[in-house]
Amino acid sequence: MPIADSDGTSIYYERHGSGPAILFVHGSGGHHAAWWQQVAALREEFTVLTVDLRGFGKSDSSMAEFDGQDFPGDVVAVLDREDITDAMLVGQSIGSVAALRAGLLRPERVSSVVLGHSLGGISHPELKELAAADRAEAVKLPVIDRLLTRSFQRERADLTFLFQQMGTFNVARMQDLRNLDTNGPSLEEIEACGVKVAFLAGEKDAVLSVKTVTRAHELLAGSHLEIVPDAPHSMYWETPGRYNAAVARLRRTLTAPKDSA
């Protein structure tokens, strides 16, 4: 069982396939197994790594409380353990904040970061205001309606149930991840680190609007933008074919020049 050491905390992860590396970072209701539809589809062309942040899945959950500021280090621990030097980190929702910070901590190990349904905790007054307006609308909906479309819930009650069950394997909760946004990186810090950033959003995301994500892309020089048609916030689960195609396309095309010195 692969385990990485994150400053004394045992972090569970898995490695599948071979090729250019993609490391997925789950959101507040997920863990390594949530990526089952991505692993099966991508492992023939890529090395696919999945991780359980502390408090989630099979990672150490014995601490009395959790600090979201530790999550980026959990991602870094896996990169160090596997000695990966050209990873693309793919975050889901608030997991994107941990992914971006991990990339900033270890730019020598990360070539690109994909911010899935997230602004990655970027510190910018206009983006903060836009995201707050999106959240104000999202909280009017039942939680499940923010994540999956109602048509999917009706037509795939089995997968909707499984989606909801995923969170029951975790000890940490949403409130343990929220402080990840504290002291987020500036646009200038991201641009200076040399890691490429892509925004990956769903057209039907009820949590973060396409308008907000597009504006973040416009503000972050050199960033990429992928908008997936008819996809909700949790498109990795509901529309895995389109999601996987977008991730594969980004892994094939996103590269960051490494300093040879």
TrEMBL record:
Residues 20-239 form the AB hydrolase-1 domain. Pfam families: Abhydrolase_1. One of its GO terms (molecular function) is catalytic activity. InterPro entries: AB_hydrolase, AB_hydrolase_1, AB_hydrolase_fold. This is AB hydrolase-1 domain-containing protein. It comes from Streptomyces fuscichromogenes.
